[in-house]
Amino acid sequence: MSLSLIAVLIVFPAAMAYAAASDLTTMTIPNWLCLALLVAFGLCAALTGIGWTAAGWHLAAGGVVLAVCFAMFAAGWIGGGDAKLAAVTALWIGFDQLLPYLFIASLGGGLLTALILKLRAAPLPALASGWAWAQRLHDVKQGVPYGIALAASALVVLPDTAIWRAAIGA
User: What is this structure's pTM?
Assistant: First the structure.
């Protein structure tokens, strides 16, 4: 199995799962994870031979999302981890699947937000009262772990991306 195939089939999905789980349990997405995804993309792009032009467009997609998400973070609409995760994911996704990624993430994030707000309206079950992550998730002063929706959306669109096709030789 080639290193680029491992990056696309294992590293990226594992990183997305870790980001979602981390956001759920700690309400943070680690900086090291976003940096690791950035480095892994560079290696994957080089190993798949997607070319400088295609890699540049992927970088542009990540840059556009970073700029928009930074503005949203500055306005207090989203968390910093969500902004970084969305940008580094857009780097992997590229412009060809960026709109589907953002659309699915928006729908999933909306459903996630509605579910969490509904759960917060009810008392925390006694079984979960000793779990720090459940208490944090139930706290109305906390945000929503939107990284879950971002990660799930990324996994949905990944098989339709240019980096996926390059890695599997299609």
Answer: 0.91
